[in-house]
Write a structure and sequence with these properties.
- Keywords: Membrane, Transmembrane, Transmembrane helix.
- It holds the Pfam family DUF4446.
- By secondary structure, the protein is of the alpha+beta class.
- It has 2 domains: 82 residues, no CATH class; 74 residues, no CATH class.
- It is 54% helix and 19% strand.
- It has 3 helices and 4 strands; from the N terminus they run H-H-E-E-E-E-H.
- It has a 4-stranded antiparallel beta sheet with strand order 1-2-3-4, covered by helices on one side.
- Strand 3 and strand 4 form a beta hairpin.
- The radius of gyration is 41 Å and the shape is rod-shaped.
- The N and C termini lie far apart (105 Å).
């Protein structure tokens, strides 16, 4: 009988030692997971002044609500800009040239400013030694009711290619 008790005691000690090792391993793994969660918690709570997790989540939700409101405002503004965009002067064509033989450099110019429909105007500047003249001519769908010079037509063509 004593021999049986010693054998059971030895077996029990081995089993208990094995269980203890397994339990210590489980405790160590749980400690690692708790540390990882703690690090994430501290990172999440960074910048807050000792508020609870619940309070921090409420703050984030309020910030998200503000961001949604701002996004709605931006979307409305963008829709307005897109609606107005066809009328904006988007295309430009600039041709510099020498209008008179006795004047050096290309100081005269023709500048076409057009919207996406080809409507706008052309601004021409003729530079001479004694004076400079500036003319403006309307443009509709790439054409003007006024007679255009070669340089003005080139400026319109250049603008329409953009």
């Amino acid at each position: 009988m004593e021999q049986l008790l010693q054998q059971i005691g030895g077996t029990t000690a081995i089993v208990l030692s094995g269980l203890t090792a397994v339990l210590l391993l489980i405790v160590f793994l749980l400690w690692l997971k708790i540390n990882a969660i703690g690090n994430k918690y501290y990172l999440f709570m960074k910048g807050s002044s000792r508020t609870s997790l619940e309070q921090r989540l409420i703050e984030y939700q309020e910030e998200m609500s503000d961001i949604r409101t701002q996004l709605g405002d931006i979307s409305r503004r963008l829709a307005f800009v897109e609606q107005m965009q066809p009328g904006y002067m988007q295309k430009t064509g600039l041709i510099r040239y020498n209008a008179f033989d006795d004047v050096g450099s290309d100081l005269s110019f023709a500048l076409a400013l057009l919207n996406e429909h080809g409507d706008g105007f052309i601004l021409s500047s003729l530079y001479a030694r004694d004076e400079t003249r500036i003319y403006a001519k309307p443009v509709e769908k790439g054409l003007s009711t006024y007679q255009l010079t070669e340089e003005e037509q080139s400026a319109i063509d250049k603008a329409q290619k953009e």
